[in-house]
Amino acid sequence: VITLPHSVNVYAPQQGFVISQYVKVGDIVTKGQPLYEIDISRNTTTGNVSATQIEVINEKIANAEDIISKLNHNKEETTISLEKQLKTINDSLKETNHMLANAQAGLKKMHDNLSSYDKYLSDGLITKDQYNYQHSLYFQQQSTYQSLVSQKMQLESQVTQLNSDKITKIADFDNQISSQENQINDYKNQLVESNANGNIIIKATTEGRIESLAVTKGQMVDKGSSLAQIKPTGDIEYYLVLWLPNNSIPYVKPGDVINIRYAAFPSDKFGQFPGKILSISSVPTSRQEMSEYTNVTNGTNQQELALYKTIVKIENKTFEYNGKTLSLSNGLKAQAVVFLEERPLYMWMFTPVYKITQSITGPIHD
C-alpha cells in the first residue's frame, strides 16, 4: 500500500553522531524544519579539526577587515591631503590670473603711451634719457607679464597632475580594498565548508507528521542510516501496487475491479475489499524498482517471470472492528484476487489436452 504523496524517509548524509533532537514522534512539521543536529567533525590529539579550522579562518577574516579599515582611513587621509594641495594651488592660480589680467592691462596701457613718447621726443618735450627710461619700464612690465604667464602654466600643470594623482591613488586604494574583500569572501566560503564539516542540520523535506524516529541524542549514525519517517498530512489518497505476471496481462485492463486481502486485516475476520485498476505498465518492472519495495516477495518463480507494475485505487481507507476504527497505512502488504476470464467447466478440464495439441501441431503458415 502506498500513498500519494508518498511517505518520506529521512537519511543521514554522512557519518557522525546525534548531538540534538528537535522533534518527537507525532509532531507536525513543516518543510525545512530542523529534525536533528549531527556532529560529523573529526578529532585528533590536538583537538577538533573543524573547530581549529574555523578559529583560524575567523582570525584571517578579522585581519582582512582590519586591513580594510586601515586602507579606508589612509584613503580618506590621502584624499584630504590632495584636496588641500589642490585648494592651495587653485587659490594661487586664481591670484595669478588676477595679477596676469592687471599686468596685461598695464602692459597695454604702457604700449599705448610709448607712441606718445615718440612724439614728445621729436617735439623736444622730453629728453632721450626719459624716453629710454619709459622703454625700460615697458620691457620690465613685459618681462613680469611673461613670468606670470609661465607661472600660470606651471600652476595649471600642477592642478592637472594632482587631479591625476588623486584618481590614481584612490583607484589604488579601491583595488586594495576590493582585493581584501575578495579574500574575505574566499575565507567565508572556507568557513561555510568548515562548518559543513562540523555540525549539520537535518531538516524535514516535506510537511507532515513524524511517524517514527530511528535515532536519539548521542547515537552514532552511518551514511545512509534512516533517521525519521514523515507521513504527509491533508488530502491523502491510498493506492495498492500490484505485480502482475505476464500470463495475466492479456486478461486485465484499467477499470477492472479486483478483491483485496490485507495481511494486517485477515480476510476471515475483515473480509475482502474492492479496488479498481488505474494503470498497468507496458514494460516489465526492473528488479531495481522492485527492490525499493521491502515487502515484495522475491521468490524464485517470481524472479523468472516478467512482472508488470499495476496501480489500484483503494475504495475503503478505514475499517470498523469491535467498535474501533482501523486505518490503512503506507507499506501494508496485501494480496489481490484478479479476475482473468470465464470459461465453462469442461474447457478448464480440457486445458491440458489443448496444450498437448498445440505442442504436436506443425509450423503455422499464413
From TrEMBL:
Record keywords: Coiled coil, Membrane, Transmembrane, Transmembrane helix, Transport
Record bears the keyword Transmembrane: yes
Localization per record: Membrane
GO biological process: protein secretion; transmembrane transport
Domain of life: Bacteria
Domain CusB-like barrel-sandwich hybrid: 10-231
Coiled coil: 145-197
Membrane topology: Single-pass membrane protein
Pfam families: BSH_CusB (PF25919)
Keyword Oxidoreductase: no
Cellular component per GO, a single term: membrane
Similarity field: Belongs to the membrane fusion protein (MFP) (TC 8.A.1) family.
Protein name (database record): HlyD family secretion protein
Source organism of the structure: Klebsiella variicola
